[in-house]
Amino acid sequence: MGIELRPLGVACNLACHYCYQNPQRDAGNHRMTYDLDKMKAEALRIGGPFTLFGGEPLLMRFEDLENLFAWGLETSGSSSIQTNGVLIEDRHIDLFRRYKVSVGISIDGPSELNDARWARDSERTRQSTALVESAIERLCREYEPPGLIVTLHKGNATADKLPVMANWMRRLHSLGIRSLRLHLLEVDHASVRETLALTARENVQALLAFAELQNSLPGMYFDLFDEMEALLEGRDQKVGCTWRACDPYTTEAVQGIEGNGQSSNCGRTNKDGVGFIKARVAGYERYLALYRTPQAENGCNGCRFFLMCKGQCPGTSIDGDWRNRTEHCEEWKQLFGTIERRMIQAGKIPLTIQPMRFELEQRLVEAWERGENRSISLTLSEWYKERTGASNGEGAPHAAIGALMQERISWVSESARQKWEERLLKLPGMMEEMTVHVASLLGQQCAVRLIPESSFPRLRELAIMHGLSAGLLPAEVLPQSICIRAPGTVSGVFLAGREESVAQAKAAWESGNLQGFRALLALPACCLLHASQVVTAPIGASEVAVEIPASIAVHTLLAPLGISLLPIEPCTFDCLSALDMAAQWMELAAKRGYSSELAWLRDCFSWPVSWSELHGVTEVKTPLFRMCFQTAPNSRPRMIRRRGIAEEVDGGARGLTFPYLSPAGQPRLVEIGVAQ
User: Fold this and answer.
1) How many CB atoms lie under 10 A from the CB of residue 590?
2) Is 190 a domain residue?
3) Domain membership flag for residue 277
4) With 80 as the cut, is the pLDDT of residue 533 above it?
5) How many domains does the chain have?
6) What is the arithmetic mean of pLDDT over 540-560?
7) Pairing between strand 408-411 and 625-630?
8) Domain C-terminal end among 187, 222, 257
């Protein structure tokens, strides 16, 4: 786990064409202010040394840089900085020396080979590159060699440029550079793909050329190749985060702290241009989905390298959707295959050709289902110990990162979370209680709602206060019912009504009289019939992409949070019976003293919302948060969007995609086919 301190967010002095932070800049989500005290407080809470990050962190006031580095030395004994190197001056090198700051520099090559790190015109770009090269030499000579990050693209890694890169790296080696990390280009825009992206074949040729070069540079490591061989041997304790089943909602390896002290994730996951704060619970829906999804459908099923690769970085996923595998799959497969063959020739036995691989994969899958992210090394150690009574020396098992949950929420900001989290927690209680209030107006029918059994005593007491009877039946009595509470609890269907009505409903169910049972429920008959059929997604999701009416208040897109006026899905979005029942429900809620909760519900139903399913992982997005949960695997992606009636949601984020506001602050139009 590494702390990335980002005082200025994505603000930068360069305008690199391919930067993975460009979506946030394009969405207008950048700033030039920060609060040192808030950043320090959050860093202390997390614990450990920090890396000063950007954008470009050297844009900070020099006095504040010194303040942070001095504080880092005092609290952790050291700190780090990742910079493009353009702004490094004498005083910075002195600062690094005095406060034991490790320096990382991002540069793609010498002179014109670094042109993709654009400084807004060719002349200034070359001047900036010269400044960076000079800074690298000075750091090597006057302080300590920096670590380098090099991104491969058409500007520096085509066949004609590789000899120039090789000579440059030999010079770096002579200066004392020993750590150099190679990145494949992350593509977030079509223009970047057209102008800079290498083909898979070109990427592989470049990587293999650098692998050969490393053999002639003693002590210089490009990280990537050593990591991949370690993965094939089951030694993944120190490999990079891209191989370790990164959860894009929590990015365990990167603990970001923004200038206002707000938590954040690795910026590579912000494809919408929104800097979400961390979800409180980690989940591994992506890896469970990739494990079972065919490779032809952008999954990883059957790949012998899945144990090591796991679909690689979610920030490089196909089509920018984290639920797909990496778009660099072909490159990694070929490189793993090459390293695998070389290991075999050297007398080593990679895990990929050992029968135990299948059991190790299954154990990782079972751990992800429990909400744990296990290393290959630990899993292999346990497997070996079970069979021999020995151990390969790795430490104690990892603790589960969090309790398994059906949904996970990541907010667009801390202020949005503070305003709405408590409201969303309070709404289920109100909606449970409304079941009793509805029942008090009924004749021979019962009001129903799926609830956790823990809520039953409270609701039964409320029913008694209103002179009503109550009962609890198994959840299966109401198929496709919408749960009102946090998932993971044992649930049942709560009935409230007159004593004889509840008794008749129980008797009808127990005798198998389904028609008689349904007739005793105060729900639209058409919706009950729809609920009794097999449905695996919200209505409308049978189409690949649909848009639902903005004004409908009975949609179930927020049902995973328990936000649904009806306890079951309506049979159609415009079902008149469902609409009439919803209107009566809201009118009664106002009369029974739930004015605040009702206002919150109206706000929720005014939001634009998107619902999408891919590989059995569903993601719901609103202007205030996103959430994901597992569903049954499906054979094709599905999408539902609702524009909503709110022109602007207070605290809602600006972003590059629906349902966020456009960078100009205008509601984003939905361009999507409408269901017939």
Assistant:
1) 12
2) yes
3) no
4) no
5) 2
6) 69
7) antiparallel
8) 222
Q: CA separation (Å) from 36 to 6, 68, 150, 260?
A: 11, 8, 31, 8
Q: How does pLDDT run across 436-462, given as a tens digit for each residue?
A: 999 999 989 999 999 888 899 999 999
Average pLDDT taken over every residue of the chain: 89
Please list, in sequence order, all residues whose beta carbon lies within 8 angstroms of the beta carbon of residue 370, skipping any fewer than 6 positions away: 400, 404
What CATH number has the domain bearing residue 111? 3.20.20.70
Does 668 have pLDDT greater than 90? Answer: no
499: its two tokens = 């004593």
Q: Is residue 332 part of a domain?
A: no
Tokens for 365, please give them.
Answer: 């899958």
Sequence-distant (≥ 6) Cβ neighbours of residue 123 within 8 angstroms: none
- 116 and 108 Cβ atoms separated by less than 8 Å: yes
Strands 408-411 and 447-452: unpaired
Domain residues for 108? 2-222
Please tell me which of 143-157, 384-398, 470-484 the model is most confident about, judged by mean pLDDT: 143-157
What is the Cα gyration radius of the chain? Answer: 28
| Residue that finishes a domain, picked among 182, 199, 222 | 222
Instruction: Show Cβ contacts of residue 281 under 8 Å, excluding neighbours closer than 6 positions.
Output: 250, 371, 401, 402, 403, 405, 408
CA distance 406 to 124: 51
Residue 79, helix vs strand vs coil = strand
Q: Is 69 left (phi over 0), alpha (psi -120 to 50) or beta?
A: alpha
Q: What is the DSSP letter of 645?
A: S
* 623 SS3 class: coil
- The answer to whether residue 520 sits within a structural domain is yes
Rounded mean pLDDT, 648-663: 91
Q: Which two tokens stand for residue 34?
A: 């920060």
Q: Provide the token pair at 124.
A: 């200034």
Q: Tokens at residue 253, please?
A: 């390896």
